[in-house]
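Quick one from the shared queue. A colleague (R.T.) flagged Signal recognition particle receptor FtsY as missing a structural entry in our internal table.

Convert sequence to structure tokens.
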Amino acid sequence: MLGRLKKALKNLVSEISNKAVVEKEEVIEKEVPKIEEKKEVKKVDQKSEKLTKITEEKKEKVKKGFFAKVKETLVYKELDLKKLEPILEEYVLLLTEADVAYEVAEELIEKFKERLKGKKIRRGEDEKKIIEDALREAIYDLINIPGPDLVEEAKKAKAEGRILKIMFMGVNGVGKTTTIAKVAYMLKKAGITPVLAAADTFRAGAVEQLKQHAERIGVPIVTKPYGSDPAAVAYDAIEFAKARGFSVVLVDTAGRMHVDVDLMNELRKVARVIEPDYKILVLDALTGNDAVEQARFFDEAVGVDGVILTKVDADAKGGAVLSVAATIKKPILYLGIGQGYEDLIRFDPSWFVERLLGE
Ligand SMILES: Nc1nc2c(ncn2[C@@H]2O[C@H](COP(=O)(O)OP(=O)(O)OP(=O)(O)O)[C@@H](O)[C@H]2O)c(=O)[nH]1
């Protein structure tokens, strides 16, 4: 999981610390107080008032020698920008091999460089840790986009007596149906039973697939025959939820190629009719730059409020998380880490950074 990106980042830290850290010396002049003579001043000061004039003269004399100038050599380490630049350039490319989109790799390296510039490493400090921390901050900065916790949102909706409408989108085969089932399972476990809307009426078998999940998990599902208007299915599911007192509706939509204009229009129609609280795009981590393309496309065409990235357990590269979040600047809400219903975890940027840079 995430192996290639992890390795690239670790190598980047090692290479910088081995090749771009230079030792520097700085001679500084310091003024050091002369403690002994200070005492003497005090003695003089304490003499009687009649002696004031003499005292003042003496004080002057002492003052001149009150501070002594000493030269001190400060030894420290610094990152040499000339040596750093080519390493960073090389790593923009190496990151793309771990599925980090080119412009995201550039952005990350730029953020990292900004943090390293002018950084002084004092004696006793661990240079590798300082470099790693700068990288940690740069990655965190890139992916820390706060998004809703769907369980919390569902609880809120329930308490307020309204219906939380969540619409799921994604191209064929990314794991959308499985993900909806995982979300339904998560909500049910938290005490909120959602209604499923089988609005993927485009692919024969899609309704059946979702139905099976609904039965296994034990949640209601609203369906219509193959070829029906998806917006009508979604609408009916909301009416059903209202009538029966459910507070969440999860709407499945047909998997489609993002470049298919008709299908994209249909998706817009569903969104227009039901006005979802969240439009969630499901993306497959294994598809790398394609996932980034899809994210861009769906965001422009329909609008995306959050992303669920699937198959992260099987992802040997790891760049998709960085790429998707940084390209559309929308939060990643959950990660799919297996085929079971329990295999959905909330995305936590700090946890993710630790997975990449921790031991
Ligand atoms: N390893 C792994 N497999 C997953 C994950 N999520 C989904 N899958 C698998 O991916 C395959 C496709 O999942 P589906 O849910 O059928 O995909 P879909 O996007 O709904 O596809 P369509 O029904 O064609 O639109 C299935 O075999 C799932 O078990 C995940 O997080 N990890």
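The mean pLDDT is 87.
The domain at 3-143 is CATH 1.20.120.140 (Four Helix Bundle (Hemerythrin (Met), subunit A)).
Added to the table.
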